[in-house]
Amino acid sequence: MNSPIIELKHITKSFSGVKALTDVSLTVHPGSVHALVGENGAGKSTLMKILTGAYSKSSGEIYYKGEKVENMDPKNSKKLGIHCIYQELNVANHLTVAENVFLGSQPVNKMGFIDWKQMNQAAKEIFASLQINLDPKQMAKDVSIAQKQMIEIARAISQDAKILIMDEPTSSLSERETEILLSLVTELKNKGVSILYISHRMDEIFKVCDTVTILRDGKYIKSLPMSEVKNVDTLVELMVNRKMESYFNKVDVPIGEPILKVQNLSKTGVLNDINFDLRTGEILGIAGLVGSGRTEIAQALFGMLKKDTGEILIDDKKVEIKGPSDAIKLGLGFVTENRKETGLVLKQTVRDNISLPNLRKYTNKLFINKTVEKKESEDYKKKLNIKARSIEQTISTLSGGNQQKAIISRWMIQEPRILILDEPCRGVDVGAKAEIFAQISKLAEQGVGIIMISSELAEIVGMSDRTIVMREGTIAGELEKDMITSDNILKLAFGGGISA
């Protein structure tokens, strides 16, 4: 094979004396797709941030095309053609789509002013090559998470990336958008672009990657060609250092009476005549393509989206939910799709984020009982295996999957009667998925009614007792347990029918 384009040798990184990486090496060749895998907290994102210059290494060496790079800062990294699309999106909501694509590199005219026409046209051409229908003049705040992901990809392409790092690039994408992205990865590879691909979706690793490097607990385990990896189980066992059973291990529990009824729920241009119920102990899956109205149902139930018409009943009693505080008082919990924007207080600690909606529980007259708050936060840190140095660590420094487990802990403490989970395992590794699904099953056993929205069909099939499939703001169909298959979900999502 040709000479490496980038080599990281014996990289070590410490934060406040705690090692995040220990003696990690990585070699990437031109025109290859190199997977980097490991559990949440294994050090993948830290290694990539060192490569992009966002973090400085504590020790070790970096070589680009055989030459040692003495100072890998963000400016130098970008100059070398290294670009990263992070799992947590970096899109400026107050700018247009085109402005985001060309952020920092806007084309200018002879007068030195931004050439808006050229910029919008160039953005339009990039999106056309990605088979994405997105208006360059649209404000970024008005587009979906999936579309924001595509904006980031378009930005890297516009800057002629030589090494493209993709950190969970499909975590918010539909099946169709994922296929488009994977085709793009292959196309970029054929053009000589090197791609570092980080994903917890094992099928993607096997589909597009040539080589894989495994990290575990901040240490290098091994690198090998994908042709030498027997199957998903083999790769997962290298990641977690133990045998993995099914992610789901769902326990069948008795389904009780309806706890929630939604009748004729509508919101102009978003939802149209939505009707369903949720029973105690039931896991109700909501599937459909991105933009089909799945998240909007959750937002309407939790008071984040004002409905035009329709009724919500809990225990057969009509309720008015004007905001999240009303929903919480009625026993609802909501793990939102975008933890960075609507789930976390990033500058606060793990403890603060876990206890956030539960402060009344810890209040003794005017003051918060810190001892009780800390104990319960510690208990849930252990219960969900949240990998953090302590509960006083700032939550923004945790990996995405560990942040997600902290949010789920928050609602478990709340002891909701109805729990809404929107993409509960987005950006979560296979080991953490099993832990999260085990907790979801326990909640169902306790009689909690659960609504689970997911873009990953395997999650819907593996966990749902019943599934609603959304299409263009309406319910395209409802599937009972024996009928919940990937094929049936996709048929309904694309407007087809299914046979009984």
TrEMBL record:
It comes from the Bacteria. GO terms for cellular component: plasma membrane. InterPro entries: AAA+_ATPase (IPR003593), ABC_carbohydrate_import_ATPase (IPR050107), ABC_transporter-like_ATP-bd (IPR003439), ABC_transporter-like_CS (IPR017871), P-loop_NTPase (IPR027417). Keywords: ATP-binding, Cell membrane, Membrane, Nucleotide-binding, Repeat, Sugar transport, Translocase, Transport. One of its GO terms (molecular function) is ATP binding. Residues 6-242, 248-497 form the ABC transporter domain. It is a peripheral membrane protein. It is found in: Cell membrane. PANTHER family: CARBOHYDRATE TRANSPORT ATP-BINDING PROTEIN MG119-RELATED (PTHR43790), D-ALLOSE IMPORT ATP-BINDING PROTEIN ALSA-RELATED (PTHR43790:SF3). This is D-ribose transporter ATP-binding protein.
